[in-house]
């Protein structure tokens, strides 16, 4: 197994500019993983015990929309983070995630990262700020996709009349 080091984390865009000490604190909580294409990593509503920094490949985020089945919200890939629900109690996934292609990533144990953040408030603040930027962008994307879905559904209903 490939060891995850502070320097390998520093090379990931999500971690760019993070203090060396913070990277060193996070590295023991991480491991290198890979997933095949079409692998469901997690479902919305499940327990969020991990998160991932995507090294290669793509993951599709989806949401079970009543009456419409699974709706694709966003596709994320190399250089992005997968999972933010681990940070916010009750730590349940807000979306589902399935690989659109083979994926290589750094996988983090969320409980270990939360413990590191609790013992080092500066690390917690830095990581939370990074996660909030991701959360804001994902919520904006979700709102746009769902508005389009609603508009498309309304248009389809109107054309059937």
Write the SSE topology:
Layout: H1 6-10, H2 20-26, E1 30-35, E2 40-42, E3 50-56, E4 58-65, E5 69-77, E6 81-82, E7 96-99, E8 103-109, H3 110-119, H4 121-159
Antiparallel strand pairs: 1-8, 2-7, 3-6, 3-8, 4-5, 4-7
Sum this structure up briefly:
With 161 residues, the chain is α+β, with helices and mostly antiparallel strands. The chain has helices at 6-10, 20-26, 110-119, 121-159; strands spanning 30-35, 40-42, 50-56, 58-65, 69-77, 81-82, 96-99, 103-109. 24% of the residues are buried.
Description:
The chain has 161 residues and is α+β, with helices and mostly antiparallel strands. It has a single domain (6-149), classed as Jelly Rolls, CATH 2.60.120.10. 38% of the residues lie in helices and 29% in strands. It is built from four helices and eight strands; from the N terminus they run H-H-E-E-E-E-E-E-E-E-H-H. A hairpin with a 3-residue loop joins strand 4 and strand 5 (69-77). Helix 3 packs across helix 4. The longest helix has 39 residues, at 121-159. The chain is elongated, with a radius of gyration of 17 Å.
CATH topology title = Jelly Rolls
Give the number of helices: 4
Q: In whole angstroms, how far apart are the ends?
A: 60 Å
Tell me the CATH superfamily: Jelly Rolls
Write down the secondary-structure element order: HHEEEEEEEEHH
Sheet bearing the most strands, described? 4 strands, antiparallel
Helix- and strand-based class?
alpha+beta
Overall geometry: elongated
């Amino acid at each position: 197994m490939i060891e995850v080091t502070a320097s390998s984390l520093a090379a990931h865009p999500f971690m760019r500019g993070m203090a060396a000490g913070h990277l060193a604190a996070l590295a023991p909580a991480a491991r290198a993983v890979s997933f095949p294409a079409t692998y469901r990593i997690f479902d919305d509503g499940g327990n969020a015990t991990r998160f991932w920094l995507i090294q290669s490949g793509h993951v599709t985020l989806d949401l079970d929309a009543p009456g419409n089945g699974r709706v694709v919200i966003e596709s994320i890939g190399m250089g992005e983070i997968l999972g933010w629900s681990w940070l916010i109690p009750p730590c349940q996934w807000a979306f589902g995630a399935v690989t659109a292609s083979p994926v290589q990533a750094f996988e983090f144990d969320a409980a270990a990262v939360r413990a590191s953040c609790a013992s080092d408030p500066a690390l917690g603040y830095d990581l939370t700020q990074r996660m909030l930027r991701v959360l804001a962008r994902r919520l904006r994307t979700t709102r746009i996709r769902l508005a389009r879905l609603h508009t498309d559904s309304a248009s389809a209903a109107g054309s059937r009349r």
